[in-house]
Amino acid sequence: MKIRVGHLYPDYLNIYADRGNIAVLTRRAAWRGHELDVRGLSIGDAMDPAAHDLLYVGGGQDREQALIAHDIAAKRDGIIAAAEAGTAILAVCGGYQLLGRSYRDFHGADLPGVGLFPLETVAGERRMIGDVLLECELDAGVRRPLAGFENHAGRTHLDDGAEPLGRVVAGFGNDGESGYEGCRVGRAVGTYLHGPLLPRNPWFADWVLAQALAHATGRDPEPLEPLADELEAEAHRISARRAETRGGRY
Questions:
Q1: Which segments of 5-61 does DSSP mark as H helices, in order?
Q2: CA nearest neighbour of 121 among 190, 197, 181, 174
Q3: Handedness of CA 243, 151, 8, 83 (dihedral sign)
Q4: Which of these is catalytic: 7, 34, 52, 194?
Q5: What are the structural domain ranges in the chain?
Q6: CATH second-level architecture of 2-246?
Q7: What is d(CA 155, CA 69) in angstroms, rounded to the nearest whole number?
Protein backbone atom coordinates (compact mmCIF):
# COMPACT_ATOMS: atom_id res chain seq x y z
CA MET A 1 0.00 0.00 0.00
CA LYS A 2 1.27 3.49 -0.88
CA ILE A 3 0.74 6.09 1.85
CA ARG A 4 0.73 9.61 0.43
CA VAL A 5 2.30 12.14 2.79
CA GLY A 6 2.23 15.91 2.43
CA HIS A 7 5.11 17.43 4.41
CA LEU A 8 4.20 21.09 4.88
CA TYR A 9 7.06 23.62 4.78
CA PRO A 10 10.02 21.23 5.21
CA ASP A 11 12.23 24.13 4.13
CA TYR A 12 11.01 26.36 7.00
CA LEU A 13 9.59 24.22 9.82
CA ASN A 14 12.37 21.70 10.33
CA ILE A 15 14.30 22.42 13.53
CA TYR A 16 12.97 19.74 15.89
CA ALA A 17 14.08 16.47 14.24
CA ASP A 18 11.09 16.69 11.92
CA ARG A 19 12.85 14.85 9.11
CA GLY A 20 13.71 12.20 11.70
CA ASN A 21 10.02 11.70 12.41
CA ILE A 22 9.36 11.28 8.69
CA ALA A 23 12.23 8.77 8.52
CA VAL A 24 10.66 6.76 11.35
CA LEU A 25 7.29 6.63 9.58
CA THR A 26 8.99 5.64 6.33
CA ARG A 27 10.92 2.79 7.92
CA ARG A 28 8.09 1.43 10.05
CA ALA A 29 5.81 1.45 7.01
CA ALA A 30 8.47 -0.31 4.87
CA TRP A 31 8.99 -3.04 7.47
CA ARG A 32 5.32 -3.90 6.96
CA GLY A 33 5.45 -3.78 3.18
CA HIS A 34 4.04 -0.27 2.69
CA GLU A 35 5.60 2.68 0.87
CA LEU A 36 5.59 6.27 2.10
CA ASP A 37 5.38 8.69 -0.82
CA VAL A 38 6.47 12.00 0.78
CA ARG A 39 5.93 15.26 -1.11
CA GLY A 40 6.92 18.67 0.19
CA LEU A 41 4.37 21.48 0.17
CA SER A 42 5.70 25.01 0.63
CA ILE A 43 4.79 28.64 0.03
CA GLY A 44 2.59 29.06 -3.02
CA ASP A 45 1.83 25.35 -3.47
CA ALA A 46 -1.82 24.37 -3.84
CA MET A 47 -3.46 22.35 -1.05
CA ASP A 48 -5.52 19.56 -2.62
CA PRO A 49 -7.65 18.07 0.18
CA ALA A 50 -7.83 14.69 -1.59
CA ALA A 51 -4.13 14.32 -2.40
CA HIS A 52 -2.77 12.93 0.88
CA ASP A 53 -3.36 10.26 3.50
CA LEU A 54 -1.20 12.08 6.06
CA LEU A 55 -0.24 15.73 6.49
CA TYR A 56 2.83 16.53 8.62
CA VAL A 57 3.72 19.99 9.91
CA GLY A 58 6.96 20.48 11.86
CA GLY A 59 8.31 23.12 14.21
CA GLY A 60 10.10 26.42 13.74
CA GLN A 61 11.01 29.60 15.54
CA ASP A 62 8.97 32.80 15.44
CA ARG A 63 10.80 34.04 12.35
CA GLU A 64 9.97 30.94 10.31
CA GLN A 65 6.40 30.87 11.59
CA ALA A 66 5.92 34.49 10.51
CA LEU A 67 7.27 33.69 7.05
CA ILE A 68 4.73 30.95 6.38
CA ALA A 69 1.75 32.00 8.55
CA HIS A 70 -0.22 33.77 5.82
CA ASP A 71 0.45 30.99 3.34
CA ILE A 72 -0.74 28.23 5.67
CA ALA A 73 -3.79 30.35 6.50
CA ALA A 74 -4.46 30.55 2.74
CA LYS A 75 -4.40 26.72 2.71
CA ARG A 76 -7.06 26.71 5.46
CA ASP A 77 -9.96 25.37 3.39
CA GLY A 78 -7.87 22.57 1.90
CA ILE A 79 -6.42 21.47 5.26
CA ILE A 80 -9.79 21.49 7.03
CA ALA A 81 -11.47 19.68 4.14
CA ALA A 82 -8.71 17.05 4.25
CA ALA A 83 -9.18 16.56 7.99
CA GLU A 84 -12.95 16.29 7.62
CA ALA A 85 -12.44 13.62 4.95
CA GLY A 86 -10.31 11.54 7.31
CA THR A 87 -6.78 12.52 6.36
CA ALA A 88 -4.42 11.93 9.29
CA ILE A 89 -2.54 15.03 10.51
CA LEU A 90 0.43 15.34 12.85
CA ALA A 91 1.55 18.86 13.78
CA VAL A 92 4.52 19.48 16.10
CA CYS A 93 5.27 22.66 18.09
CA GLY A 94 5.16 25.61 15.66
CA GLY A 95 2.97 23.62 13.30
CA TYR A 96 0.65 22.82 16.20
CA GLN A 97 0.33 26.51 17.05
CA LEU A 98 -0.41 27.52 13.45
CA LEU A 99 -3.16 24.92 13.09
CA GLY A 100 -5.00 26.72 15.89
CA ARG A 101 -6.91 29.94 15.30
CA SER A 102 -4.03 32.32 15.95
CA TYR A 103 -0.62 32.77 17.51
CA ARG A 104 0.57 35.99 19.17
CA ASP A 105 4.36 35.90 19.18
CA PHE A 106 6.84 37.33 21.68
CA HIS A 107 6.92 40.66 19.82
CA GLY A 108 3.13 41.04 19.93
CA ALA A 109 2.53 40.18 16.27
CA ASP A 110 -0.69 38.28 15.65
CA LEU A 111 -0.19 35.46 13.16
CA PRO A 112 -3.26 33.93 11.52
CA GLY A 113 -3.93 30.25 11.97
CA VAL A 114 -5.81 27.54 10.14
CA GLY A 115 -8.47 27.06 12.80
CA LEU A 116 -8.44 23.26 12.65
CA PHE A 117 -7.67 22.95 16.36
CA PRO A 118 -10.00 24.82 18.77
CA LEU A 119 -7.29 26.81 20.52
CA GLU A 120 -5.29 30.02 20.63
CA THR A 121 -1.66 30.60 21.60
CA VAL A 122 0.06 33.61 23.15
CA ALA A 123 3.81 33.72 23.78
CA GLY A 124 4.97 34.27 27.36
CA GLU A 125 8.24 35.64 28.70
CA ARG A 126 9.50 32.37 30.15
CA ARG A 127 10.20 29.37 27.91
CA MET A 128 8.89 26.00 29.01
CA ILE A 129 11.73 23.56 28.41
CA GLY A 130 12.48 20.01 29.42
CA ASP A 131 11.48 16.37 29.26
CA VAL A 132 7.76 15.74 29.43
CA LEU A 133 5.62 12.66 30.03
CA LEU A 134 1.95 12.28 29.13
CA GLU A 135 -0.79 9.74 29.67
CA CYS A 136 -2.82 9.37 26.46
CA GLU A 137 -6.02 7.56 25.55
CA LEU A 138 -6.23 7.72 21.75
CA ASP A 139 -8.11 4.42 21.60
CA ALA A 140 -11.06 4.02 23.95
CA GLY A 141 -10.07 2.28 27.18
CA VAL A 142 -6.36 2.03 26.26
CA ARG A 143 -4.02 4.36 28.16
CA ARG A 144 -0.43 4.70 27.01
CA PRO A 145 2.54 6.88 28.03
CA LEU A 146 3.98 9.41 25.58
CA ALA A 147 7.45 10.83 26.26
CA GLY A 148 9.26 13.70 24.57
CA PHE A 149 10.92 17.05 24.96
CA GLU A 150 9.23 20.46 24.99
CA ASN A 151 10.73 23.87 24.25
CA HIS A 152 8.16 26.61 23.72
CA ALA A 153 7.29 30.09 24.93
CA GLY A 154 3.72 29.80 23.66
CA ARG A 155 0.89 29.30 26.13
CA THR A 156 -1.73 27.32 24.27
CA HIS A 157 -5.28 27.54 25.61
CA LEU A 158 -7.85 24.99 24.47
CA ASP A 159 -11.50 25.91 24.10
CA ASP A 160 -13.89 24.44 26.65
CA GLY A 161 -14.70 20.90 25.61
CA ALA A 162 -11.69 20.53 23.31
CA GLU A 163 -9.93 17.15 23.48
CA PRO A 164 -6.27 17.27 24.56
CA LEU A 165 -3.74 14.75 23.31
CA GLY A 166 -2.97 13.71 26.87
CA ARG A 167 -2.76 14.47 30.56
CA VAL A 168 0.56 15.83 31.82
CA VAL A 169 2.31 13.45 34.23
CA ALA A 170 5.52 15.51 34.34
CA GLY A 171 6.48 18.67 32.49
CA PHE A 172 4.61 21.80 31.42
CA GLY A 173 2.23 20.88 28.61
CA ASN A 174 0.09 23.38 26.75
CA ASP A 175 0.34 26.25 29.22
CA GLY A 176 2.00 25.01 32.41
CA GLU A 177 -1.28 25.28 34.31
CA SER A 178 -4.10 23.23 32.81
CA GLY A 179 -2.45 19.81 33.20
CA TYR A 180 -3.08 18.96 29.56
CA GLU A 181 -0.90 18.78 26.46
CA GLY A 182 -1.67 18.90 22.77
CA CYS A 183 -5.01 18.66 21.03
CA ARG A 184 -6.87 16.06 19.00
CA VAL A 185 -9.62 16.49 16.43
CA GLY A 186 -10.50 13.14 14.85
CA ARG A 187 -7.36 11.85 13.12
CA ALA A 188 -5.58 15.19 13.54
CA VAL A 189 -3.15 15.56 16.45
CA GLY A 190 -1.11 18.57 17.54
CA THR A 191 1.58 18.50 20.22
CA TYR A 192 4.56 20.34 21.66
CA LEU A 193 6.46 17.06 22.09
CA HIS A 194 9.51 16.65 19.92
CA GLY A 195 13.04 15.60 20.62
CA PRO A 196 12.27 13.61 18.33
CA LEU A 197 8.81 12.33 19.13
CA LEU A 198 8.29 9.18 17.05
CA PRO A 199 11.55 7.25 17.68
CA ARG A 200 10.84 7.41 21.42
CA ASN A 201 7.20 6.36 21.09
CA PRO A 202 6.80 3.52 18.59
CA TRP A 203 3.20 2.89 19.61
CA PHE A 204 2.33 6.47 18.67
CA ALA A 205 4.20 6.24 15.35
CA ASP A 206 2.14 3.14 14.58
CA TRP A 207 -1.08 4.89 15.62
CA VAL A 208 -0.32 7.70 13.14
CA LEU A 209 0.47 5.15 10.42
CA ALA A 210 -2.74 3.23 11.15
CA GLN A 211 -4.79 6.43 10.74
CA ALA A 212 -3.07 7.18 7.42
CA LEU A 213 -3.59 3.61 6.19
CA ALA A 214 -7.25 3.81 7.14
CA HIS A 215 -7.62 6.85 4.90
CA ALA A 216 -5.69 5.17 2.09
CA THR A 217 -7.84 2.02 2.20
CA GLY A 218 -11.17 3.60 3.11
CA ARG A 219 -11.50 1.22 6.05
CA ASP A 220 -11.53 1.71 9.82
CA PRO A 221 -8.09 1.88 11.50
CA GLU A 222 -6.64 -1.53 12.32
CA PRO A 223 -3.77 -2.41 14.67
CA LEU A 224 -0.47 -2.92 12.83
CA GLU A 225 1.56 -6.08 13.24
CA PRO A 226 4.06 -5.60 16.09
CA LEU A 227 7.73 -4.96 15.44
CA ALA A 228 10.84 -5.72 17.48
CA ASP A 229 11.06 -2.39 19.33
CA GLU A 230 13.63 -3.11 22.04
CA LEU A 231 15.80 -0.07 21.25
CA GLU A 232 12.78 2.19 20.85
CA ALA A 233 11.36 0.96 24.15
CA GLU A 234 14.65 1.71 25.90
CA ALA A 235 14.70 5.23 24.41
CA HIS A 236 11.18 5.72 25.73
CA ARG A 237 12.11 4.47 29.21
CA ILE A 238 15.08 6.84 29.42
CA SER A 239 12.99 9.82 28.29
CA ALA A 240 10.15 8.97 30.66
CA ARG A 241 12.56 8.52 33.57
CA ARG A 242 14.13 11.93 32.93
CA ALA A 243 10.69 13.54 32.89
CA GLU A 244 9.64 11.85 36.12
CA THR A 245 12.89 12.88 37.82
CA ARG A 246 12.32 16.44 36.66
CA GLY A 247 9.17 16.62 38.76
CA GLY A 248 5.97 18.60 38.55
CA ARG A 249 4.59 21.25 36.25
CA TYR A 250 5.39 24.96 35.94
A1: 18-30
A2: 174
A3: positive
A4: 194
A5: 2-246
A6: 3-Layer(aba) Sandwich (3.40)
A7: 18
C-alpha to C-alpha distances, 134 to 63, 72, 160, nearest whole angstrom: 29, 28, 20
**107 flagged as catalytic:** no
CB 85 within 8 A of CB 119: no
pLDDT tens, N- to C-terminus, the chain (250 residues): 999 999 999 999 988 767 899 999 999 999 999 999 999 999 999 999 999 999 999 998 888 999 999 999 999 999 999 999 999 999 999 999 999 999 998 888 899 999 999 999 999 989 999 999 999 999 999 999 999 999 999 999 999 999 999 999 999 999 999 999 999 999 999 999 997 899 999 999 999 999 999 999 999 999 999 999 999 999 999 999 999 997 655 4
For 185, left (φ over 0), alpha (ψ -120 to 50), or beta? Answer: beta
Does residue 246 contact residue 171 with C-beta atoms inside 8 Å? yes
Active site residue 194: yes
Q: Is 74 helix (H, G, I), strand (E, B) or coil?
A: helix
Q: Tell me if residue 12 falls in helix, strand or coil.
A: coil
**H-type alpha helices, the chain:** 18-30, 62-74, 76-84, 94-98, 197-200, 202-217, 230-246
Annotated active-site residue in 7, 34, 52, 93: 93
C-alpha dist (Å) from residue 140 to 136, 144, 193: 10, 11, 22
Name the amino acid, one letter, at 46: A
**What gap in Å lies between CA 234 and CA 50, rounded to an integer?**
38
